[in-house]
Design brief:
The protein is built from eight helices and three strands; from the N terminus they run αααβαββαααα. The chain has 177 residues and is mainly alpha-helical. Helix 5 packs across helix 7 and helix 6 crosses helix 7. The N terminus is likely disordered.
């Protein structure tokens, strides 16, 4: 099965399993639990595909409210203090930022462009995302990352990351960001 077929199958399986249809989204999307071993799986998957991980440095201290960031150069930044002990939210941030890594690896702003409008709608309506906090060209990718991070478990994200990013050549430089 091709990468794109597997991505679509993985995402659509998750979407179907959690009632992704807009009308059902708000009532059938469980909050993914914090499972430390699963977060370790995400971190290990990130390292396996060449992503360097950082915690609580630089922008975390400088940008108010920053939860995390994934940089095109292959750096993942997580800001644990911003989560104020909310481990489910921290896990969601890991999943969210690694969805952005997959977007970089497939070379598109949105992994599933055919669902972009639905992602934007669901992120705003059901996840209460303030779209105006982002530049319009980032809406699709940000909405997709929010929605997929909500419906996919860590193992699914790790598998997707490895599938999309194995062998990816991250344009590293001398520092994060």
């Amino acid at each position: 099965m091709s990468f794109f077929s597997r991505v679509a199958t993985t995402a659509l399986t998750g979407l179907a399993a959690f009632g992704f249809a807009s009308a059902a989204f708000a009532h059938h999307v469980p909050e993914q639990p914090w499972v430390e071993s699963e977060i370790e799986r995400l971190i290990n998957a990130a390292h396996l595909v060449g992503i360097d991980t950082y915690s609580g440095v630089g922008p975390c201290e400088e940008v108010d409210g920053m939860m995390g960031a994934m940089y095109e150069k292959g750096y993942l930044l997580i800001c644990p203090e911003a989560h104020e002990g909310d481990t489910a939210e921290l896990a969601n941030t890991f999943r969210h930022e690694l969805i952005h890594a997959v977007q970089y690896c497939v070379g598109r702003d949105v992994i599933h462009p055919q669902h972009e409008d639905q992602y934007i709608s669901d992120a705003q309506e059901h996840l209460h995302w303030n779209i105006l906090g982002y530049e319009p060209h980032k809406w699709g990718g940000e909405a997709e990352a929010r929605v997929l991070a909500t419906i996919m478990e860590e193992g699914q994200v790790a598998d997707l990351l490895i599938e999309a990013c194995a062998g990816h050549d991250w344009p590293k430089d001398n520092g994060a960001g």
